[in-house]
Write a structure and sequence with these properties.
574 residues, alpha/beta, Glutaredoxin, Rossmann fold, 4-stranded mixed sheet, 14 strands
Length: 574
């Protein structure tokens, strides 16, 4: 590249340079948007501007799926191949796009305009089959209309939002983001204003009394986490929102961010008051460009209104939030891998302890929660813990969001109090199955969850009842499969997801996820080897017991549950 070609890039990088390595991911995004891909000369400029060794720059580029050292089309069409989209015809859609553009997956069209790629999950499971064309999310893609997909204006799909209650989702489903003015008029930021009249200790005590636990899957008590960070020595302290929602079947955080962004922001500011933090980050997965923009615009609104920055709402609280966009790595949903990514490194999970509450972002005390968890916080502070506990069950208080996809009449986001049954969610709220179909299976908790059968329709959706039934709440993903689904193919796709997304840091997950996929590939084609069932069990148990983080520890959960429910599935086909 010539000096004149590099000059615009250098001016972009100069703005990020003061942040050093922490700006590496934003810098790579900006450089790729500027040049289209990341050749050696561009990577060198990024490294020089941020004082990052070129080897480390290349290491980060190669780690993330959405960054490329090879030429790409000016528009990349990513077609989801996760189970819900596969059931709806995603493979046929990808093939049709490639035929129309006369390219193979990963190639660049002759005019340099398009590249088609398979994506592990786009968080649009309720709009299957889904694709991301450039920065435009599209749902229900039709293989017969690929020319229109490539050339026409594209409308963002609007998700159905329903349920027994509409507390967290009251502003969702309208097809537009809720502005600061509308959010405030509807009672928004009342929780923050009340929190600012309370001591940090009182806010934390209210969360502990309310019984809020993390909604991302781990279910760790939020109040205890905040208390740990508040008591930890060291400054500065950080608040981080984990919006890297990447597990197949999960899309609730996307809807919360796109439709009601200020609720998440309010929860983060309350957390800052509670733990004594002055800076926060919202880390949004790379496949959510629209949510990233909406959240950024909402932060600007909040600053202009005095809800962010110096002396928030006239108080002594100083707090601001910075956005970070991921680049395609499921492992960055693991909290310590996400922190590594913000720091400008490969998203590899850290060994724990120490935990983020004492040694988090940049080695300082950090609170990290997901979007749904932060959205519960204003509700608890405004109404009080006693009122909050009137929703749900004694041991699982509060509202819960469930993402329904697959073979149901109304896929979408459903808000219910903990304590309703699975059957109520599927049949009373989501309309049941398509006419003439029978229920075969329900995958609860996402790709890392467990399968339920028709006998489980009466199980109560709460932490305690699902645990007793051997099932998982996880992140709230519910994928429904009727009797037309090939569960062998579903398991193969889940195994491929984990094998592809394993970061490789620990051997049990790196090797185990690959072996699991190879076995399930044989099962899906109807040609398992003698002893494959035992191998699956051994590999799964080893990953659960010996993997470093939650990815490897749960990569076999769905497979092992399927082996118990349908042992005949793993026999050779006649």
């Amino acid at each position: 590249m010539t000096e004149s070609e590099l000059y615009p890039l250098r001016s972009i990088l100069a703005e990020l340079a003061p942040q050093g390595r922490a700006a590496l991911l934003p810098a790579l995004h900006a450089a790729q948007q500027f040049h289209g891909w990341l050749p050696e000369a561009v990577a060198t400029e990024v490294g020089r501007a941020l004082s990052v060794p070129l080897a480390d720059v290349h290491g980060v580029i190669d780690f993330y799926e959405m960054l490329s050292r090879q030429p790409m089309g000016r528009t990349v069409a990513r077609v989801c191949n996760a189970p819900a989209c596969a059931l709806a015809g995603a493979d046929a859609l990808a093939d049709a796009l490639c035929r129309h553009l006369k390219i193979a997956p990963g190639e660049v069209s002759s005019d340099g305009e398009f590249t088609v790629e398979h994506a592990p999950c786009l968080g649009l499971c309720d709009h299957a089959p889904a694709l991301l064309v450039g920065e435009a999310a599209l749902g229900r893609g039709d293989p017969g209309r690929v020319a229109e997909i490539c050339t026409s204006s594209r409308e963002r799909p609007i998700s159905f939002v329903g349920g027994d209650i509409r507390i967290l989702t009251g502003n969702c489903g309208q097809g537009r983001p809720t502005s600061f003015a509308d959010y405030s008029t509807g009672g928004g930021y009342a929780g923050l204003k009340k929190a600012l009249t309370l001591t940090p200790q009182d806010v934390i005590a209210e969360l502990k009394t309310a019984g809020l636990v993390g909604r991302g899957g781990a279910a760790f008590p939020t109040g205890i986490k905040w208390e740990g960070a508040a008591k930890a020595a060291g400054q500065p302290k950080y608040i981080v929102c984990n919006a890297d929602e990447s597990e197949p079947g999960t899309f609730k955080d996307r809807i919360l961010m796109e439709d009601d962004p200020h609720r998440t922001i309010e929860g983060m500011i309350i957390a800052a008051h509670a733990v004594g933090a002055r800076r926060g980050y919202i880390y949004v997965r790379g496949e959510y460009p629209y949510a990233f923009k909406v959240m950024g615009d909402a932060l600007d609104e909040a600053r202009q209104a005095g809800a962010l920055g110096e002396h928030i709402f006239g108080s002594a609280l100083h707090f601001d939030i910075e956005m970070r966009l991921g680049a395609g790595a499921y492992i960055c949903g693991e909290e310590t891998a996400l922190l590594e990514s913000i720091e400008g490194k490969r998203g590899l999970p850290r060994i724990k302890p120490p935990f983020p509450t004492t040694h988090g972002l940049f080695g300082k005390p950090t609170v990290i929660n997901n979007v749904e968890t932060f959205c519960n916080v204003p509700l608890i502070v405004e109404r009080g813990a006693a009122e909050y506990r009137k929703i749900g069950t004694e041991r699982s208080p509060g509202p819960k969001l469930f993402c329904l996809s697959g073979h149901v009449q109304r896929p979408g986001l459903y808000e219910v109090p903990f304590g309703v049954t699975l059957g109520h969610l599927l049949f009373d709220l989501a309309g049941g199955l398509k006419p003439g179909r029978k229920l075969q299976a329900v995958l609860l908790g996402g790709a890392a969850g467990a399968f339920a059968a028709e006998k489980n329709l009466d199980v109560i959706l709460s932490f305690e009842d699902l645990t007793a039934a051997g099932l998982s709440l996880g992140s709230g993903a519910v994928m429904v499969f009727d009797d037309s689904a090939d569960l062998r193919d579903v398991l193969k796709r889940l195994a491929h997801f984990f094998a592809d997304e394993s970061c490789g840091k620990c051997y049990p997950c790196q090797l185990g996820a690959r072996r699991q996929y190879e076995i399930l590939d044989r099962v899906a084609t109807g040609h398992p080897l003698a002893g494959d069932r035992e191998r699956l069990s051994d590999v799964g148990g080893t990953m659960i017991d010996a993997s470093l983080c939650g990815l490897g520890q749960t990569a076999a959960t769905a497979v092992l549950s399927a082996m118990k429910l349908w042992p005949e599935m793993f026999n050779a086909r006649k």
